[in-house]
Amino acid sequence: HSSPMNWRDSFICFLAPDPPNPDEIPEACRDAIMNYWKHVMDFGTFLFQLLSEALGLDSEILKNMDCLKGLFMACHYYPPCPQP
């Protein structure tokens, strides 16, 4: 009986408060991650504006409370098992 093999590749980065440096992202997924970051940040900003207004607050209150900070991304690639 042998122990399981670790045969996945992982990429982990913080997306907020500052975007990742594109040069530090693998070229194979660089464009996708930067595009994802932009859309998630735009959506988050819009969503927090709506939530703030629904609570009867200034539309920028959640953004000003740093609710858009701390976005983290973890991606895993699982190639076919080399020894099924």
Helix content: 25-40%
Proportion of strand residues: 5-15%
| Uncertain parts | none
Sum up the overall morphology in one term.
Answer: elongated
Series of H and E elements = EHHE
Number of strands: 2
Structural class: alpha+beta
Mean pLDDT, all residues: 86
**Rounded Rg:** 18 Å
Q: Cα distance, first to last residue? A: 14 Å
Strand order of the largest sheet: 1-2
Largest sheet: 2 strands, antiparallel
Number of H- or I-type helical stretches: 2
Topology:
Elements: E1 9-14, H1 30-54, H2 61-64, E2 72-77
Antiparallel strand pairs: 1-2
Q: What tags apply to this protein structure?
A:
elongated; 84 residues; 2 strands; alpha+beta
Can you characterise this structure?
With 84 residues, the chain is an alpha+beta fold. It has a domain at 27-69. It is built from 2 helices and 2 strands, in the order E-H-H-E. A two-stranded antiparallel ribbon has the order 1-2. The two termini are 14 Å apart.
Quick overview:
The chain is of the alpha+beta class and 84 residues long. Helix content is 35%, strand content 14%.
